[in-house]
Amino acid sequence: MINNMKSISGSTKHVPPEGGWGWMTVLSVVICNIAAVPPMTFFGFIFKGISDELHLPMMQIALIITTNISLGLILNVIIVPIIKKNTSCRRKIGFVGAIMVVLSYIGVAYSQQLLHVILSFSICMAIGVKFITTASNETMKSYFVKTRRKVNKITLLSTALGAIIMAQLMAYLLTVLNSRLTMLIISGVSLSLILAALFLSNVKFHLVEEIIDQEMETFVVPNHENNDGIKNGNSENKSRVNGIHKLTTSNDKIDKNEVKSLINSKNKYIIVPSRNINGKDKNFDIANISLSQENVEDTKKGEPKRRNIYVKLLTNPLYVCVAIGVILNTLAESLFGALLPFMLFQFKFSAMDVGTGIACFATAMVVMKYVAVYFRPKKNIPPRIVCILAIVFLIAARVGISLGFLSNYRNLLTAAIVIGSAKGFLLGYIEETITEIIPPEEEDHAMNIINFTSGILLFIIGPAAGYSRDFTGKYQTVMLGINGLNSAVILLWTIQLLLSACIELCKVTRNYHGRNSQNNNVTS
Prior knowledge:
alpha+beta, Growth Hormone, Chain: A, 7 strands, 524 residues, two-stranded antiparallel sheet, 5-stranded mixed β-sheet, single chain
């Protein structure tokens, strides 16, 4: 069927405000980046005293922290799509998440055994933080479409601000109070998340009117298949937005055969704007074009059924290679982040020294990620090469830590800045390794595979890393395993890049010889 939507000069349409109440949703995201994310990320820093009271071995500590991270990765696959789809209940989801975060800290503060900590932090905290952060971010995105890049800069910088504030606050509290009282105060700080949830108003109540300047008539033709593109035309400018193909003409003529060819393609929707809606000289008669759903389906009879996107991705060798590298890197960075506070305490640093080191690490990471995302060089550098260089710096820094480089406070700050900077560049480019080889409509599915696999593997490997620390009594074995995972990423991606370069060189050489042979034949 054809949906005919007319818009006459001077009429209006409702669009997101690009501001207004949207700035309150930005404030909501900033509150989450200060009160929710840093305390969960640096949980080991506060939990050290409670773990000593409960006499928990490192294997159980690693189980607690890595279970939280694993569940967060898996929830990216399950809960995030639900929150994205249900726009009307984001405030409720955020409110529930905020309450869960507050109760999680209280539960850990009064925990007396391992099970209490797992239920409070590993499960309840992971779900609560995922609820409130996802609801806030998705609501903010719905308010800002044209200016989203500017807003993302603000929220990214607020992550560094949160790391500095919360790391110093936790360090000060640990010097004057014990870990349990510190946990209760952090739970009081997290009450601000309830306020953040209340800011999440549905964007449909804040839409603004936008005047449509041009008069045109748009024919929306549904087509029940999907395709990556449409045929090239001579005088048409075709674009695709959110799975919809749009045909705009450079003149006032729309060819009837062109419309038919577009309709018979695999496009989901075809929007054909027709000018001269008040005139009588339309270039085609819509009624003469057979566009019913039944006819569209008839043209597709006998064609093979479209493959599942996940099967398509898993049968793509290049994606599998890149995904394995991303998964291994996620495992390495998650393990290092979980055990880092305990490593620093082993070097006999005070709580204030560790807090300052964590703040420097987080600040350098966010600043370098900001630089990597928004101030990239104009030269098209392959993302995997940048990631390999960043991983090399991470391995070198961890080797220095294993060899006892952290002998004084100055070396601690140096190592924190180097590791944070390298990790920032890595985070800034790691997603590009996926987006450069996967079409936009498949990116969510590609990341779902990576997140789910990383979550399952981390749940298994995390306690194993803690057990190796208990068995040997040293963190060097854990650092060796983490560097081994990063080294595997470097080896895998380097081999793939070299093979791709060799194949491309062979193609160029073959084409060159082919052209020379043709020229010789023509000359003879």
